[in-house]
């Protein structure tokens, strides 16, 4: 498999990746950031997988059940056909709570004939650090490891358990199932019960997507991206993950391999803003509660990222026994970036808080706590906005005065002023308004570079940076301001490579980037659209949509030459930016339609 040709299934507790041939190759249980049960994605020999194997006469195709997170892989040799419907159960119970157990269900649906397949069932618990032994018991198959720490996984099936474990041929004559559970079941599963779980899970997703507006253009892409963002949200605390994986490399054979199964304040806040715009109130509310829970002390500085269960220490380790995706070592778990200083997160958080207050001001819970956080953020920004930091791209070397960080410091104060007005708490404004003006002036004077006729990556630098395009999105500058227009054009000239964008072209800690950071291309497309270059924007948008995998999913990066997907997958950043672009185009198309009908 040369591309990240995987589908994601999940239930807002954990997730699994299934290849386009129906092989389960990445799954952590019981939660997103638990150790892996299957990690063939990161080591084809040692990682472990759960594969459905057929002979060469079968054609294999894959799709999502429309408007759901149920993945269907179809196996057909013309006469004999069956499907695997993969899902992780998630649905309302009679008590009004969500049922989302740490389980992967594989419903085997008989279509016609007597299709045959074999199973390669090879769990490798605890990141395959020790030996995993598998035993066939009366009611289930149990796999366990004791080396690193004790861990178990249970497999229930309607097929012959010994034949499954030994990889012998199985015949499909009626519907059947596999149920992989982190916990031993109290009631023995049945084919009927698994089918019922499948139907209930489908209904959950259909109801969820029904709350997303319908667009007359790019609706399919918007819906699939929204479902993917929902799959990366962790129900228990409200955290939103950057991606479902760890250590998928930004460039094959290099060392830019990071664990993304955490909640970055920046990524998550951007996701929440987009999801709230699509009408998904609860995701936004849960995330705001996550933030409130993280800030118990008024003088506590916000970290750039946290564990999904609000952990503050994310110690980075390497798993040297795993060979890495396509041999790209090291495989990392944990992420040392949690200790970095990035001044932009305060503005991003204030922006999302302000957006929620505007949208839900009549029924906003936690208003007093949000006002407390607002004052705390202003206090921190006031004291630290003049300091350099690591920036949005998390340079691991020296700190700089990054333009993006400074703009977001301005956003923090601008939104705090707006929040104060909404909450009628105006006594602070005589201090905050001059501060907002001071930061804005500082940016206009120091980040504008006459030589390149653009706002640059950092103060005094000649380097361009795609993150500067967000100045307009955050309201710092008008889209038609000549300085913004010339910045967009300069970035297009310097960072555009065949319709895909570099984040920046100056060398970082690891040399020159050789892949495109997917979100940057979407930012550029959005900026072109805003400055009036709509045809060019649409052309580039349609082009990048063609680089998604077979299911419309995107990772973090795209290789400039081969267009293969690289980096962690699926990436929340990429899908939130896709939605922003698509909604702009769809709204424009809707406006044009209205004008046409008026003319008629």
UniProtKB/TrEMBL annotation:
Residues 8-142 form the Trehalase-like N-terminal domain. It holds the Pfam family Glyco_hydro_15. GO terms for biological process: carbohydrate metabolic process. Keywords: Hydrolase. The keyword Transferase does not apply. InterPro entries: 6-hairpin_glycosidase_sf, 6hp_glycosidase-like_sf, GH15-like, Trehalase-like_N. One of its GO terms (molecular function) is hydrolase activity, hydrolyzing O-glycosyl compounds. Residues 217-582 form the GH15-like domain. SUPFAM superfamilies: Six-hairpin glycosidases (SSF48208). This is Glycoside hydrolase family 15 protein. It comes from Poritiphilus flavus. The lineage of its organism: Bacteria, Pseudomonadati, Bacteroidota, Flavobacteriia, Flavobacteriales.
